[in-house]
Fold this protein.
Amino acid sequence: MPEADKPIFERLALIGVGLIGSSIARAARQRGLVQTIAASARSEATRRRVAELKLADQVFDTNAEAAKDADLVIVCVPVGACGAVAVEIGPVLKPGAVVSDVGSVKAAIIHDMAPHLPKSVHFVPAHPVAGTEHSGPDAGFAELFDNRWCILTPVNGTDPEAVERLKAFWEALGSNVEIMDAQHHDMVLAITSHVPHLIAYNIVHTAEHLQQVTESEVIKFSAGGFRDFTRIAASDPTMWRDVFLHNKEAVLEMLGRFSEDLAVLTRAIRYGDGKTLFDLFTRTRAIRRSIIEVGQETAEPDFGRKHGVKEPPAPLPRPYASD
Amino acid sequence: MPEADKPIFERLALIGVGLIGSSIARAARQRGLVQTIAASARSEATRRRVAELKLADQVFDTNAEAAKDADLVIVCVPVGACGAVAVEIGPVLKPGAVVSDVGSVKAAIIHDMAPHLPKSVHFVPAHPVAGTEHSGPDAGFAELFDNRWCILTPVNGTDPEAVERLKAFWEALGSNVEIMDAQHHDMVLAITSHVPHLIAYNIVHTAEHLQQVTESEVIKFSAGGFRDFTRIAASDPTMWRDVFLHNKEAVLEMLGRFSEDLAVLTRAIRYGDGKTLFDLFTRTRAIRRSIIEVGQETAEPDFGRKHGVKEPPAPLPRPYASD
């Protein structure tokens, strides 16, 4: 990863310090990408933890205080809260500052934030496609973005120099950067992230409500495949509720296709059409191979889960941090 | 895991030596659970590889030769092939032998195999709930069954001593053993394994056929969730075709429930019902926690995938071994 000779931005403000915000703080600090980090968080508990972990030089109670004087402001709160943050920070932003976010949805964030930001700042929406199922300031780590993609979706007319600076920042955080249109982003992420999360949540829910099979049986025999789905179904519920509410069109479009395709498979099972099943199951291995080849997945069997080793009981998924 | 003082069975015959068969061979040998291992495999390539890897003392071209004189015969072929194997080995089986299998479906296997087995042998169907996305004799390893469940589904009237011996064998392989009715097994596995595999295959298929999103975009941005599904969608297509064709009723029942539940979530998204989404997403984390607590899943974030480390290019999923 590139080493910064000098900071890319002087003062970074993080509005919200959960998994993503705290990972940015750790990586930016470790790699010398900024001089000073200011942060704000909605809950007192998170602010205290951010101070204890020394994730920021200054921790503020209000978003406006954190954003004031910053050269780069990154809003790291759930998608549904971004508009309100823009209202709070808009009036105090430093002229020439770059304002960005990390939301998994882009068109809605542009719609909600842009009208509240002054013309004197450069708004460059961003989405690092990286994460784990854990949340909160303790969950972050400096390597989270290494070799992951970060998508920037600047609107037409954005100052190219601001886009370049933010690109350099994300590259220095370890990411590969791609620039695309917000609408296209939302379509791509609907299929690669949003619908997968929805169906993972859904099957866990279905399993939970069976009368014929007990919950303890679902848990015991989960190594047959079910447990793979529970990882992403353990993700932050506020974040994901907001994603679905704010990327409705694309998610409904992709869900429609998923359901149509599932109907075809269901019918093949009902009528004993083994050829349809076999042909489809044969093609899917190639996609995994490609994902491994481009370094977006581990090549180790079973995700490299250890076999024959009793796992230590900790760390379990934590209760939700509220921001 | 328990150490065997003396072999539990003298002569083990493995009919089929893929991921599961070769893992049994490795673990049984390493832990001294049997004196001799005989094996057969459908393809010449597999037989050669089994000999090269020294997975068996004797490798036979026909299943009957391998099964003859064995005290324990384990049929490790796709579910749809088990009936034909029973026809082949039935006439040569040694009186008093225990005959078992490793199929992911149990009622259909009993239906297909039992009529062809002589009354002088003890048929105890088994299903080790363990595996990886890889297949073939090279993919196996001795620790595969450690701390995983193996379900035995003997029919009423089976000699309890034969069941106990097979139970002891699987425990010595590292497994926890549960005994249940075949129909109940098929229902439990439909939700914990079969339907998860089907929807994983399905979403990979849906993603592959989009016009709005390119395959290269799906691959690049897969870290947003999609890649978790590709692991089980890289599983052996023959095995999985057979599972769906032979556990039709239970899979259709569970798929029906899954689709109903997905319709409710789809509707909640369409009408902006954030409460329904949030409430459901909140409950699912508890199930993952339980799965980790009982040792069926790694507690490490992101399955313990390495971050900040470029994965080595090998080993990639291999082409399919045919048995």
In short: The first strand of chain B starts at residue 9 and ends at 15. Chain B has a mean pLDDT of 92. Chain B has twelve helices and nine strands. The beta strands of chain B are 9-15, 34-40, 58-60, 72-75, 98-101, 122-123, 126-128, 149-152, 176-179.
